[in-house]
Amino acid sequence: MLEFHLGWGIILLTLSSGVFFLMIISLKPNWPLTYSVILLSLLIFLWLTFTAQSFIGFYIFFECSLIPTVILILGWGYQPERLPASYYFLFYTLLSSLPLLFVIVTHTSIYSSSILQFWDDFSDSMIFLLVILPFLVKLPIYFTHIWLPSAHVEAPVTGSMVLAAILLKLGGYGLYLVQGLNMYSETAVMSICMLGGIYSCLICLRQSDVKSLIAYSSVAHMSFVILATLMSGYYLNISSILMMVSHGICSSGLFYLSYMFYTRIWSRSFLLTRSTISLLPYLCFWWLGLSFFNMGLPPSANFFSEMYFFIGVFSLDWLMVALSGILCFFSSCYCVYLYSSTSHGESLYISSWLDYSLREYLISSAHFIPLLGIIFL
Asked: If you ran DSSP here, which 8-state letter would residue 31 be given?
């Protein structure tokens, strides 16, 4: 258990470092020095979170990562709605952590306890459901997901990249540290997670904003992570970490490509981004590749994560297998909808944009190549 816990930390630290390098070169912001300091502070908090050995340190750094993210949204967001989006982000994440703070205050013994020992103390108690609530909100589980699309839509491209690639994985990392729930709590959380994931896929099919669709798709993908970590098992543990890494890279790439659309068309609406395959052919090549990876087509990392998930679930619950199959089907539907609605159709423009920069080639390739490399690991 301890070795697997350390493996999670190393993998997520590597993912954090790679994404932050891409964040630094992906945007030319106002006040570049302040921007760099905020990114560096966020990276430091994430490193301290993934390497924390005591629970009190893990909680402090887990919550401190909110501050630089909110500053990114407020300082470099595009629309006036970034203020209520920041309120949503803070309200949901801080309010959900209050039960966990109560446990910390009332159980002074955890100050000297390791993370794994702390979870063992509450593995058979209903209070454990309140303890894991901040991790469920962070992922997020359905009914607590409202903050995610609003924060993504209003955040700058770097804010969306770090939210999708790293900050959601904080919830999965904390949830993995759970040693087990009682049967009532486990069934309730898993039912909400699965049905909410299916409904999130249906919401994706009704979106008219590219960035909003990608944000809602994260809710559906993280449903697999929640289910795999709660049900636990060798294959399910592999599925959860593989899904988190592949989703982190893929969703970060999709958000960056949507930003490239936006800088040329100045709109994220599907009505205005049609037929970009003739206007931006190289961009649509990466768009197609990342959509395939996000869909879980073989031999992508998402495909193997879903395959390991079904192998682990087959021996536990046949109803969960059927619902997971429905979730996979609808997730493929919105990926096809995302690509076809932006790349095909009648264009409203008569000219092509060929002003690609080396920086855009580098960042797009840096999202695509690691996903190919994971296949051969």
From this structure: S
